[in-house]
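Example S7 (structure tokens).
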């Protein structure tokens, strides 16, 4: 039996297991994309030079990041961001979590309870 054929039959027999497998695959692919994006964007916060990837965030230079994320689910988001960067887009930069929040306050991108502070 060929692998694909086996997979097709096996998917019908164990849909739950395969769903978990698919989700894990997507999660791993997404993690790889995120790491690739971080690497392409220089691997550190553009403001303070922080380098721990766990707290690095991909920031939309013009502040449309939140809208961007909402526009599509996050798996597609990383895929799209990576494609844009590879095409030479300068719309994205790396910020650590601290600098990202500070930038949001400075630019008033973040609004508390819809009321600006
Ligand atoms: Zn920073």
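Recovered sequence:
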């Amino acid at each position: 039996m060929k692998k694909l054929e086996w997979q097709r039959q096996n998917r019908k027999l164990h849909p739950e297991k395969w769903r978990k497998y698919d989700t894990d695959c997507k999660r791993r692919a997404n993690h790889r994309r995120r790491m690739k994006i971080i690497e392409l964007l220089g691997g550190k916060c553009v403001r303070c030079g922080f380098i721990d990837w766990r707290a690095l965030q991909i920031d939309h230079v013009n502040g449309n990041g939140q809208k961007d994320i909402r526009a599509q689910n996050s798996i597609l988001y990383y895929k799209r961001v990576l494609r844009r960067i590879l095409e030479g887009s300068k719309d994205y930069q790396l910020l650590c979590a601290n600098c990202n929040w500070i930038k949001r306050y400075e630019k008033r991108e973040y609004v508390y309870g819809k009321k600006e502070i």
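Notes on this example. The chain is about 55% helix and 10% strand.
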